[in-house]
Design brief:
With about 575 residues, the chain is an alpha+beta fold. The chain folds into three domains: about 20-150 and about 545-560, Immunoglobulin-like; about 150-290, C2 domain (Immunoglobulin-like, Sandwich), CATH 2.60.40.150; about 300-535, 3-Layer(aba) Sandwich (Rossmann fold), CATH 3.40.50.410. The chain has 13 helices and 30 strands. Strands 17, 18, 21, 22, 24, 25 and 28 form a seven-stranded mixed beta sheet that branches. A four-stranded antiparallel beta sheet has the order 4-1-8-7. A hairpin with an 8-residue loop joins strand 2 (about 40-50) and strand 3 (about 55-60). The protein starts with 18 loop residues before the first strand and ends in a 5-residue tail after the last helix.
Length: about 575
């Protein structure tokens, strides 16, 4: 048995790939002005180019900054940097003038393409933005910093007294900007408070921010705080600045945390200059945010339900070309996916019993079409004993049903959601694995079901098999834009879509590719899990002493020199 992997990720006598978690800081200069009566309202979208694929995948959107041609964004993409792999990254800049989530509805300001290695190695990389026919239109500035594992957050609140009057016909409209110092010596924006209108004595709302974001876990690293007077034009007036550290502010309110705002230009011009106001710390609380593994060790169980697509578009089961063909010497795509993911998830389920549902088939005895039936054909109990039992029930089912259609997801999602709704205390978290070959035919109902499920302890993973167009699945996998249906918005992202063909084909295959599939499928589960627990204010219970209830040592999670599955992801997920 291998020794347990510590939260730091270091394990003596072992090997791992040279990977790091990298946070990118993004700013722009000299953007095109697309608005008639004001400046552009820019946003940057980050795309990655998955290894071995001919496509770009959107992974992040910054916030929109109003009325500026030189934005400095506080919302930063976090990417995994692999030293031995050329990782292409694309940045597209848009002028946002409406609430639409469709990028095509906004003015395109330009794009830049580079590799993650270029950003990491350069310290600060400034690239020209290009539009049609190579026309240059401003630049984008990129810096990278490696993030450390840190589970702490701070809750802070500040007020200001006697700030400088910056408006002719009023007082000031002040807001604060917090900037962390990076290893390259630069300062990057990490948080902005709200604007308080027409006052020289503002009290800003309290906010929470991770210690990793604020100082990358270094309690003594300088944090710069700038105070501005908001202007509609986007040219905000600088009032003053001060410096602090996390260790300092954790001492709480008092003289040590009363900061005089200094405007260097005024200080240089005026011999009697004493400052531009005072910022007082009102409150500081250090909060320990539990990790995914803290909940698992405290007894939270993952309940995995598998739903299998038995529609006719999979092909006749007796044909070797069918996705459901069971007559060969190797596993078909459905069985491959079940085994790859099941080998990971089984170690987090104490009884190793998995409910398995089918949909889209005509079932015995009368051939009625069903979109929610038990694959083992037990009248009341859908559970199968371990992954071997799941595969046996699946093979038996293929010989008893008639593949039909259509492809409806909503019934199986609602089935699992019904059980998740009875366990909202954090004791169980439900995971629905849907394996399908086709385009969803009940998209409106599926969206409604997912939005309802987003308020429950539940995640959905969709594995697409075959060569179908899975564009609609990307809409459900709302990584950067919240899923909506009419006026309803998902409370959180709970869907992950993975195309099976990326892990099975002429260029890939074997055990390693199936473990890579499992890693891709399970990558977002810890983050989705923690977002539910945080939203509901649920804390993990103390670690259980009955070792049979805990996952085994992570040898089942290792292949080659790379940790996969929940363990490697969970060590990075803290909020």
């Amino acid at each position: 048995m291998l020794p347990s992997v510590p939260q730091s990720g270091f394990l003596g006598g072992s090997a791992v790939e040279p990977t790091s978690i990298i946070e990118l800081t993004i700013s722009c200069r000299g953007l095109a002005d697309m608005d008639v009566f004001s400046k552009s309202d820019p946003m940057v979208v980050t795309f990655i180019h998955p290894f071995g694929e001919d496509r770009w995948v959107e992974v992040h959107r910054t916030e929109v900054i109003q009325n500026t041609l030189e934005p400095k964004f506080s919302k930063k993409p976090v990417l995994t940097y692999n030293f031995e792999e050329q990782q292409k990254v694309k940045f597209e800049v848009y002028d946002i003038d409406s609430p639409s989530d469709m990028l095509s509805d906004h003015d395109f300001l330009g794009l830049a393409v580079c590799t993650l290695g270029q950003i990491v190695s350069s310290g600060m990389l400034e690239l020209p933005l290009h539009v049609n026919k190579g026309k240059k239109c401003g630049t984008i500035i990129l810096t990278a910093e490696e993030l450390i594992f840190c589970k702490q957050e701070v809750e802070l609140q500040f007020l200001g007294k006697n700030l400088d009057r910056m408006d002719w016909f009023g007082k000031s409209d002040p807001f604060l900007v917090f900037l962390k110092s990076t290893e390259s010596g630069q300062y990057s924006v990490v948080h902005k408070t709200e604007v308080i209108k027409n006052t020289l004595n503002p009290t800003w709302k309290s906010f929470q921010i991770s210690v990793r974001e604020l100082c990358n876990g270094d309690m003594d690293r300088n944090i710069k705080v700038e105070c501005y007077d908001w202007n509609r034009s986007g040219n905000h007036s600088f009032i003053g600045e001060f410096y602090m550290t996390v260790r300092q502010i954790l001492q709480g309110p008092g003289p040590a945390n009363e900061f005089t705002l200094i405007n260097p230009a005024k200080k240089q011009k005026k011999s009697g200059y004493k400052g531009s106001g005072v910022i007082h710390l009102m409150n500081s609380i250090l909060i320990e945010r539990p990790s995914f593994l803290d909940f698992i060790k405290g007894g939270t169980e993952l309940q995995c339900t598998i739903a299998i697509d038995f529609t006719a578009s999979n092909g006749h089961p007796s044909s070797p070309d069918s996705l459901h063909y069971t007559g060969g010497m190797t596993l078909n795509p459905y069985a491959d996916a079940i085994q790859a993911v099941g080998q990971i998830i089984r170690d987090y389920d104490t009884d190793k019993m998995f409910p398995v549902l089918g949909f889209g088939a005509r079932i015995p005895p009368d051939g009625k079409v069903s979109h929610e039936f038990f694959v083992n054909f037990h009248p009341t109990n859908p559970y199968c004993n371990d992954i071997e039992g799941v595969l046996a029930a699946y093979r038996n089912c293929i010989s008893r049903v008639q593949l039909y259609g259509p492809t409806n997801f909503a019934p199986v999602i609602n089935h699992v959601a019904k059980f998740a709704a009875t366990y909202t205390d954090g004791s169980q978290y439900f995971f629905l694995l849907i394996i399908t070959d086709g385009v969803i035919t009940d998209m409106p109902q599926t969206k409604e079901a997912i939005i309802r499920a987003s308020m429950l302890p539940m995640s959905i993973v969709i594995i697409g098999v075959g060569a179908a167009d899975f564009a609609a699945m990307e809409e459900l996998d709302a990584d950067t834009v919240a899923l909506t249906s009419g006026n309803k918005v998902a409370a959180r992202d709970i869907v992950q879509f993975v195309p099976f063909r990326n892990f099975k084909g002429p260029q890939v295959g074997g055990q390693a590719s199936m473990l890579q599939l499992a890693k891709a499928v399970l990558a977002e589960i810890p983050t989705q899990f923690l977002s539910y627990m945080k939203d509901k204010g649920i804390k993990p219970k103390p670690p259980r002493t009955d070792t049979h209830s805990l996952p085994p040592d992570p040898e089942v999670l290792l292949f080659g020199d790379k940790a996969v599955g929940f363990m490697s992801v969970a060590q990075q997920c803290v909020s």
